[in-house]
Design brief:
Layout lengths: L1 E4 H9 L10 E16 L8 E6 L6 E11 L2 E10 L17 E8 L3 E8 L2 H5 L6 H4 L18 E8 L6 E8 L12 E10 L2 E11 L40 E13 L2 E13 L10 E15 L2 E13 L3 E14 L4 E17 L5 E3 L15 E12 L1
Antiparallel strand pairs: 1-2, 2-3, 2-4, 2-19, 4-5, 5-6, 6-7, 7-8, 8-9, 9-10, 10-11, 11-12, 12-13, 13-14, 14-15, 15-16, 16-17, 17-18, 17-19
């Protein structure tokens, strides 16, 4: 990361007037993750695919973050983070300029941090770091990202509090106003999580509830006509593939998630479980609640100081409206060329069985869809392999 004095940066790029505080600073940073990717069964016709694909381990981004010392241990903070596709130069996150994060707030070591804006929810902040996704990204995450393990969803208009760490224990809470006059709860999001770490052991658990609009008209997205998770609500939603895409008209999505991790020498082990509920009401295009049970495990081995290898497995079961099961196994290796540049080779195989609901409302044979790539296999199996490079600046 490149640090630039706030006074210099603000004059050169932001055009701000006035003197900067001596202990204030702004950091300009970014990341580019690019790969050559092979997909076995990439569409409904079972075609295979070779392509360049960006953002396997981490999404491409650049951003600004900074602090201003206000005295007495109190600091003002902000972060603006842009997401883009290096292959096309287009903005990600629905075309937002700062779609990954955009917030401002205050922090104090003794009392914690309060931030306001577009942010990650507490499950992403506290539970996800104890899962395989933290090490190998989208290829090691939940099919369809039905539980937001790969942070497909971010939250607009959110107020978030993060506590200090008390003897290894920390809590976080978030609430996002729906902003609908006369209907306070329409489109709201709220979440809470806690984490505890002692020695080599860490544990985290949390809950997230995302509300859709209260009317059928309000649920039609202005950016994606096929989606009924409106762009006017506070959450982006988690509808990444055919596995859960038919539930975008849900009244709410509730996610409970927990994870535990143990690190000993060069080995890292973690396990996780999540329960995602897609709940309908009279305006939904489905009638029965859909439930996804997700259980996963990961083992990582630091073969050398420069090389990490990892193995992951995820079991996902859909029940209620459908009955489908997805088994996914993943392998990965990451090699550091320097502190800022690494090469990686990752792959996953998934097998699906049972039935799932299609976007047209019918029940069909379950299709495989590895991780959160959103590629529907058109059959019961799919393989994705990526050879890539990641550079941080």
């Amino acid at each position: 990361m490149k640090r630039i004095a706030l006074s210099t940066f603000s004059l050169a790029l932001l055009g701000a007037a006035g003197a900067a505080h001596a202990q204030s600073s702004v950091t300009l940073y970014g990341l580019i993750d690019e790969s050559i990717q092979y997909v076995y069964h990439a569409d409904s016709a079972n075609n295979h695919l070779f392509q360049t694909y960006a953002g396997n381990l981490q999404g491409d981004r650049w951003g600004l973050k900074g602090t201003e010392d206000l005295g007495g241990g109190l600091k003002a903070i902000f972060q603006l983070e842009n997401g883009f596709d290096v292959n096309t130069g287009k903005l990600n996150q629905g075309g937002r300029l700062f779609g990954r994060q955009a917030y401002v707030g205050l922090t104090q070591d003794q009392y914690g941090t309060v931030t306001l804006g577009r942010q990650y929810d507490p499950l992403v902040d506290m539970v996800q770091p104890l899962t395989a996704d933290n090490y190998f990204g989208s290829t090691f995450t939940t099919p369809g990202d039905v539980d937001n393990n790969d942070n497909s969803s971010r939250t607009n208009s959110a107020i978030k509090y993060v506590s200090p760490v008390w003897s290894g224990f920390q809590i976080e809470g978030m609430y996002a106003f729906g902003g609908v006059a006369g209907s306070t709860g329409a489109g709201q999001t709220w979440s809470g999580a806690a984490t505890y770490s002692v020695g080599p052991f860490s544990f985290a658990a949390g809950y997230l509830r995302m509300e859709n609009a209260n009317t059928a008209a309000g649920r039609v997205s202005t950016t994606n006509p096929l989606s009924h998770w409106s762009s006017s609500v506070t959450s982006d939603g988690t509808f990444d593939s055919a596995i859960n895409g038919a539930y975008s008209s849900a009244k709410s999505v509730d996610i409970t998630s927990t994870a535990a991790q143990y690190v000993t020498g060069p080995f890292t082990f973690n396990i996780r479980y999540s329960f995602a509920q897609y709940k309908p009401d009279g305006f939904s295009l489905f009638q029965n609640q859909e439930k996804f049970h997700v259980a996963g495990g990961y083992a990582g081995y630091q073969l050398t100081p420069a090389m990490l290898i990892g193995l992951g497995y995820i079991y996902t079961h859909g029940a209620g409206d459908t009955s489908a099961t997805y088994h996914q196994g993943s392998l990965g290796a990451d090699y550091l060329l320097s502190k800022r540049t690494d090469l990686y080779l990752i792959g996953a195989y998934q097998h699906a069985n049972g039935t799932q609901r299609a976007l047209d409302g019918s029940h069909v044979t379950a299709d495989a869809s590895v991780g959160s790539y959103g590629l529907t296999a058109g059959s019961s199996s799919q393989v994705i392999v990526s050879l890539g490079i990641r550079h941080k600046f």
